[in-house]
Amino acid sequence: MGMFDKILKDNESLFLNELALDFTFIPPVIKFRENQQQYIASCIKHLFQKRTGKNLLITGSHGIGKTLAAKHILKELENETEEILPIYINCWKKNSSYKVLIELCELLDIKFIQNLTTEQIAKKVSSVLNKKPAVICLDEADKLENNDLLYSLSEDIFKKTIILITNENDFLSRLDSRVKSRLSLDILEFKPYTENEMHEILKQRIEYAFPQKVFPTAELKQISQIAFQSKDVRAGIYLLKESGLIAEQESSRIITQEHIKKAISKFQDFQIKDKQETPEQVQAILEFIKKNQDKTTKELFELYSPKTSYRTFHRNLQKLESSGLILLEESNQGPGKSTIVKLPLQDTLDKF
User: Fold this and answer.
1) Structure pTM?
2) What CATH number should be reported for the domain holding residue 109?
3) Which residues pair with 102 in a beta bridge?
4) Which of 84, 202, 248, 290 is the most buried (most CB within 10 A)?
């Protein structure tokens, strides 16, 4: 064996398919979500008979396969028939009726909408959607500024299944009663993955992403434990990709334990959501928390300088928690109960 056989050359890559470690990647098989996918499909099936389908609310914490399962069903639907329109929109940025309608116009190739009012655009969208049945999936539906769009879709689209996805447990209770009545939502709750399920999902991603023997499977347990602790499989996917990138930067033909340790050390700076997608006020609070860890919500509020009410401050903390960026832990130490604000995985990362 030559001295340089283990060194990666400039024209070589450690990855078989780097896209398999992208959060938007849809695997051919979605492990441990077969029952949930079957339920989603059952809500859509009436559309095949040109009847209206069931509307569905998908709930559960971040990073447990809600979006992935829904997108997989939409992809299957697109491959199965041209008679049903599959539509997916993320409401994190498209958070108003107007923005969602503009996105629908782009997806449906509706032109000449300049200078039209929101109501006029809605009528154009409805006229196109009513030509054939449609599945309309609104991810992060809790980010919508109001219920107007949901009411319009439920009232004006005849044959459809509306799928709403949210991380927030109280989303349904916050819906306007008229909208709630019109939608008549079935509810599908996604439970967090077990540690073994996390391990198997990450093992599947390794098979898609790397050639054989590149990733030491004995080290996968370490990463799956971190993903399980964070309750977010995307944390594990991030660590797989980062380990590979670090190994590739060092021109290594295999990923070593040292590469994984370096990836873990970077994990504290990792955020599931891109900073640009986090509202400015919420992002400012997150940066403040990073500098003032392990304090109670009351202590943080008293230290936080911008003038805001405690109610608004606490609501922003809940938004950060629902996005997986902080942890709110109940504490019984001292007089009365308090809530400690932490960054994800602080205790777990200290072990490595």
Assistant:
1) 0.79
2) 3.40.50.300
3) none
4) 202
